[in-house]
Specification:
Helix 4 runs parallel beside helix 5. The mean pLDDT is about 95. The termini are far apart. The chain has one domain: NAD(P)-binding Rossmann-like Domain (Rossmann fold). Strands 3-2-1-4-5-6-7 form a seven-stranded parallel beta sheet, with helices on both faces. With about 270 residues, the protein is of the alpha/beta class. The chain has eight helices and seven strands. Bound molecules: NADP nicotinamide-adenine-dinucleotide phosphate (NAP) and coenzyme A (COA).
Length: about 270
């Protein structure tokens, strides 16, 4: 366990996380639970989100799991109201639900493109918009999970690139509009993170995984704890003057190809 969380860093804080039944967002939830936060978690699938909440309560933490699809504004609003009623006003809201698959544009239907934009971008709007009246202000912190695809074009990722680019701009607009109300809005852009569905889809074989790592400045995948630690920093008082920014926790992914072969001309 590499997490740098203090046991009491989030004591008394209420945290809502969308897309928290697995992967990076569940890792953030578990890290926040270890730091003393009380959690409300949502995802589409009732069994998966109940199991995620159970891993936290089973370890002595406080968590409720609510089934809600981030594409459905009314369902998101109801989940956030339930979280507020159960835990109290929300100190931190994290939007991390996403869908992705590798497909060239000519192999992607209009509905395939729309589905990813709906989950990632519209879903993030829905989560943040619905949370506004339930935030503990001043001092609330919102975090969207974006990706290097937001700024680096990537083959077979037109849908995710467009959706995550939209999220980056939404973060900045909300930071401007909601800053005066005492709400900070930031993003985290993870690089390739080990043991996640995202990387299982983008690097499905050991050969592709090795190529990914060889191109990274830091030459290795990150961990879910790396992202949880970034989230803890962004919602802490140490980041009290930071808003509208994207924290790259990516091993240098956004910098481009750092392999020894990158500049070879022969
Ligand atoms: P993951 O385990 O598949 O996490 C995605 C989560 O979103 C799941 O909990 C899923 O749960 C939920 N979800 C999907 N569609 C939803 C919907 N319509 N409504 C509500 N919840 C929904 O994937 P991950 O790889 O950890 O990715 C997590 C986040 O990190 C994503 O935002 C991704 O873009 C970002 N990211 C990941 C990497 C990486 O290396 N993995 C790199 C950069 C960025 P249900 O199926 O139960 O709904
Ligand atoms: N290639 C091309 N198109 C694909 C595809 C693929 N690999 N996978 C799905 N699609 C298309 C479908 O064909 C459909 O389009 P159509 O109606 O024109 O046929 C559209 O995408 C929606 O698919 P559907 O399965 O109905 O959507 P869903 O809402 O049930 O699931 C997904 C959403 C497709 C993103 C699914 O992969 C998912 O649930 N992902 C969540 C987990 C995840 O992606 N984790 C990684 C996060 S980075």
């Amino acid at each position: 366990m590499s997490s740098a969380f203090r046991a009491d860093a989030l004591a008394g804080k209420n945290v809502f996380i969308a897309g928290a039944s697995s992967g990076i967002n569940l890792g953030i939830a578990q890290g926040f639970a270890r730091a003393g936060a009380k959690l409300a978690l949502i995802s589409r699938t009732p069994e998966r989100i109940a199991a995620a909440a159970a891993t936290i309560t089973g370890a002595g933490g406080t968590a409720i799991g609510i089934a809600a699809d981030v594409r459905d504004y009314a369902a998101v609003e109801a989940a956030i109201r339930q979280a507020h009623d159960t835990l109290g006003p929300l100190d931190v809201v994290i939007s991390g639900a996403a869908g992705n698959f590798l497909a060239p544009v000519v192999g992607m239907s209009a509905n395939g493109f729309k589905t990813v934009v709906d989950i990632d971008l519209i879903g993030t709007f829905n989560v943040f918009r619905a949370s506004f009246d339930h935030l503990n202000t001043p001092g609330a912190s919102l975090i969207a999970i974006t990706a290097p695809q937001a700024v680096n074009a990537m083959m077979f990722q037109a849908h995710a690139c467009a959706a995550k680019a939209g999220i980056n701009m939404l973060i900045k607009c909300l930071a401007m509009e909601w800053g005066p109300a005492g709400v900070r809005v930031n993003g985290i852009s993870p690089g390739p993170i080990a043991d996640t569905e995202g990387m299982a889809r983008l690097a499905p074989t050991p050969e592709v995984e090795a190529r990914y790592k060889a191109r990274l400045a830091l030459r290795d995948y990150g961990t879910k704890d790396d992202i949880a630690d970034s989230a803890l920093f962004l919602c802490s008082d140490n980041a009290r003057y930071i808003t509208g920014t994207i924290l790259d926790c990516d091993g240098g992914s956004k910098l481009g190809d750092a392999s020894a072969n990158a500049l070879k001309t022969t």
